[in-house]
Design brief:
The protein has 66 residues and is mostly helical. Helices cover 52% and strands 0% of the residues. The chain contains 2 helices and no strands.
Amino acid sequence: MLMVPEILQVVIVGLMILVPLCLIYKKIGFNPLWAGLVFVPGVGLLIIFLQLALLPWPNAKPNLER
């Protein structure tokens, strides 16, 4: 069985979360460095989810259906 040190496991899991978040932030028009909030213990993911849900996206197309 392959024994990987715990710190390496933490880095791998962190990158598995960080890379897709960077791509999401870049695609919607925010600075991808905001994805670094995921490493804030306890509230990082909450801040990211609130930011993505509540802030207007710069690249969003205006809704012209009226």
